[in-house]
Design a protein that fits this description.
The structure holds 2 protein chains of 2 kinds. In chain A, about 30% of the residues lie in helices and about 25% in strands. Chain A contains 8 helices and 18 strands. In chain A, strands 1, 2, 8, 9, 10, 11, 17 and 18 form an 8-stranded mixed beta sheet that branches. An 8-stranded mixed beta sheet of chain A has the order 5-6-4-13-14-15-12-16, with helices on both faces. In chain A, helix 1 runs parallel beside helix 7, helix 2 crosses helix 5 and helix 2 crosses helix 7. Chain A starts with about 35 loop residues before the first strand and ends with a helix. In chain B, the strands form 3 sheets. Chain B has a 5-stranded parallel beta sheet with strand order 5-4-3-10-9. Chain B has a 3-stranded parallel beta sheet with strand order 6-7-8. Chain B is globular and about 80 Å long. Classes of the chains: A alpha/beta, B alpha/beta. Chains A and B meet through loops of A and helix 1 of B.
């Protein structure tokens, strides 16, 4: 789908595509520079690198261990409709646009990498366990319908006919057949292979400082002491995107770490399928979800904690997840608990991602995806590659420009 | 209302609305809601907080010069609450604490026995203690006796939005308290905040009513006005309730209508 028609292959590396007149001569990275340096090899950085390389851009990813961050922790729910919140209708449009790309993205990626990504078009069922949570879910359903989403209200008994393992106390639910899932671990593995096959170079070291010259980003210094020069640098370092040295203070993305603890259980063959779609609930105000994979893995998540860089798995976190999951699906107590883990979501002030050029020429952002990094990976790869190749951010991504935060700040302080 | 300040311990505030941060849909909405509320004092859960992160709730409060009131949410024993308060003092450099010791997760009601124990220990330790308590006038008095700087009775359970379920108890508490009485928990909409102030509360503390509203920023502004209106009404003194009507316009000297000849 990204054929070479728009590939700027005739361009030489001494002609950056959208450099302002008069700025290119003195600010050029040294010869041998890459077209694109992606800082961070998570699902967002790898999707960006893969798509950029497909367009003929010479691309390098800097990450000490690509695919080992939040991508290993994330549940992989593609929950555009089920995770709708008031005031986030604009983000909904972006999430839906990316969800629509998933089938084709998956097919192309699996073809390019020769790997399965665990994409499963199984739908989602959101249920309520008491009358307060039911009222909350009713309100969400009204909002979903107002937003034109395909969401169907079901009685508790109807919910249990769909998913017999649900607790008898289920009071009602919303069936969202368009919210699917993928397996982020297999997804990043496939992206890594696809990147390598597309010619993306990997530098297995952390970017420790952005390099600039004449008010322009020119690459990064890495933790091994080497430097990588590039015409464009993409900041895709997840929750760490807000703390890269060398980025001017007013350009640093306002991204903070938001901790999530998550559990992985296994459904033994005798119990299969156990659940046939993603099941989620608000239990006394807290969110819990269960994502059943075709390979028998059952992911239970997730806490939301503002605790800085802490990734400790705590007794309380595991307890709360199991308590709520057990209330929702009592039978989980019989399943082997395989893994407990905590990761960091890159939270932005408005929960939406930062996509495209920053205020510093040569530096772009693809970060702040918060809960939606996996969901937004296909769209992020596409719009970032378009911005990198043509200098123009596609229309659908423009409301998510990193520049919106400098403007918002001014509005608040007048 | 610059001439009518709220004083807690040694500190005065212009705003009588204390905010919480839990439940906000995003940091950006929280920021705008806090500004719209006009609050000068905002509580944050110490167990859900890391002081030194860029872009955190805490840095947001510092940016707008809103005083931080750490709370001990999630503690079930006096021991846990005391420990959490001490960690908060160390991390934030404030000896103010909103003391919460809850009895169970279903109701989140305060445990009065543990609460009083913790309050006594923390006051002895030099803390300025603002306890979240039941709407029990006797317990309120006991908390004041051990040296709490304010009393924060619940109107109804946290997050329930059921308003003040026992206004009479509130009046009993405010009438005899020598420290500020602050409605904590239960406000669901603006009129609840106004009622609290009319009953003699010195301030209103709320979170969910704003953060979980469909339009948090609008609700924050509504709450600010409601607290001001309720305070003014309290100071103005409400009229006595009467069984029968009493005309508000004078009747003497008005022209008499002839029922046989309508005026129109």
């Amino acid at each position: 789908m990204h054929a070479s028609s728009s590939t700027p292959s005739s361009r030489t590396s001494s002609e950056p595509p959208e450099a302002a007149p008069g700025t290119s001569s003195g600010a050029s990275p040294r010869p041998g520079a890459y077209d694109v340096l992606v800082v961070g090899g998570g699902v967002v950085g790898l999707a960006t690198a893969w798509r950029a390389a497909q367009r003929g851009l010479r691309t390098v990813v800097a990450d000490p261990a690509p695919g080992s961050g939040a991508s290993q922790v994330a549940a992989g729910m593609l929950a555009a409709a089920a995770e709708l919140y008031y005031g986030e209708q604009r983000l909904l449009a972006l999430n839906l646009a990316s969800a629509r790309r998933y089938p084709e993205f998956t097919a192309e990626l699996e073809e390019a990498s020769g790997r399965d990504t665990g994409y499963r078009a199984c739908g989602t069922l959101a249920v309520a366990l008491d009358s307060d949570d039911r009222a909350h879910l009713r309100e969400l359903h009204t909002l979903q319908v107002e937003c034109g989403l395909d969401a169907q209200w079901l009685s508790g008994r109807e919910c249990r006919r769909l998913e017999p393992m649900l607790a008898p106390g289920v009071r009602g639910g919303v069936r969202v057949d368009g919210d699917h899932q993928t397996d982020p671990r297999r997804l990043v593995a496939a992206l890594l292979t696809a990147c390598e096959r597309a010619g993306v170079a990997f530098r297995r070291a952390a970017a420790v400082r952005l390099l600039t010259a004449h008010d322009r980003a020119t690459g990064a210094e890495l933790s091994d002491g080497t430097r990588v020069s590039a015409w464009r640098t993409v900041l895709a370092a997840g929750s760490r995107s807000g703390s890269l040295a060398g980025v001017p203070e007013h350009v640093l993305p306002p991204v903070r770490p938001v901790k999530g603890q998550i559990l992985r259980l296994r459904v033994p063959g005798a119990y299969a399928p156990f659940l046939s779609r993603t099941v989620r609930a608000v239990v006394r105000g807290g969110h819990v979800y269960l994502v059943p994979r075709e390979n028998g893995e059952l992911v239970v998540g997730a806490t939301t904690e503002e605790l800085g860089w802490d990734t400790t798995v705590t007794a309380g976190g595991v307890y709360e997840l199991l308590r709520d999951a057990h209330e929702l699906v009592p039978g989980i107590t019989e399943l082997p608990l395989v893994e407990t883990r905590a990761g960091l979501r890159p939270g932005s002030p408005d929960n939406a991602p930062l996509l495209g050029p920053t205020a510093l020429p040569g530096l772009l952002a693809a970060t702040g995806h918060y809960r939606n990094g996996v969901l937004l990976a296909p769209l992020t790869g596409d719009v970032m590659a378009e911005a990198l190749a043509t200098g123009r951010l596609p229309e659908e991504a423009r409301p998510f420009s990193p520049l919106r935060f400098s403007n918002a700040l001014q509005e608040l302080t007048v | 209302m610059a001439d009518d300040l709220l004083t807690i311990a040694d500190t005065t505030f212009t705003s009588r609305l204390i905010m919480g941060t839990g439940g906000a849909p995003s940091l950006e909405v929280l920021e705008r809601a806090l500004l719209a509320s006009g609050t000068e004092l905002t509580t944050v859960a110490m167990r859900r907080l890391e002081p030194n992160v860029r872009g955190s709730v805490l840095s947001l409060l510092r940016k707008h010069d809103i005083r931080v009131l750490p709370n001990t949410a999630g503690c079930f024993t006096a021991g846990e609450a005391v420990l959490t308060a001490r960690l908060a003092r160390e991390a934030l450099g404030t000896d103010w604490v909103k003391l919460e010791v809850i009895a169970d997760e279903r109701t989140l009601l305060p445990d009065p026995v543990e609460l009083l124990d913790a309050a006594e220990i923390l006051v002895d330790d030099g803390f300025t203690v603002l306890p979240y308590t039941n709407d029990d006038p006797v317990l309120a008095r006991r908390l004041e006796d051990v040296g709490c700087a304010a009393i924060m009775p619940l109107g109804s359970p946290i997050g329930s939005g059921l308003g003040i379920r026992n206004p009479h108890n509130f009046q009993l508490i405010t009438e005899r308290a020598g420290v500020p009485v602050i409605l904590d928990a239960g406000a669901g909409t603006a009129s609840d905040a106004a009622v609290a102030m009319e009953l003699g509360c010195s301030a209103v503390m709320l979170a969910s009513a704003v953060t979980r509203a469909q339009e948090p920023v609008l609700m924050a502004e509504a709450m600010r006005h409601a607290v001001d209106a309720g305070r003014l009404a309290f100071r103005a003194g409400r009229i006595p309730r009467r069984h029968f009507a009493m005309a508000s316009s004078p009747v003497d000297g008005l022209p008499q209508f002839d029922p046989e000849r309508p005026a129109f």
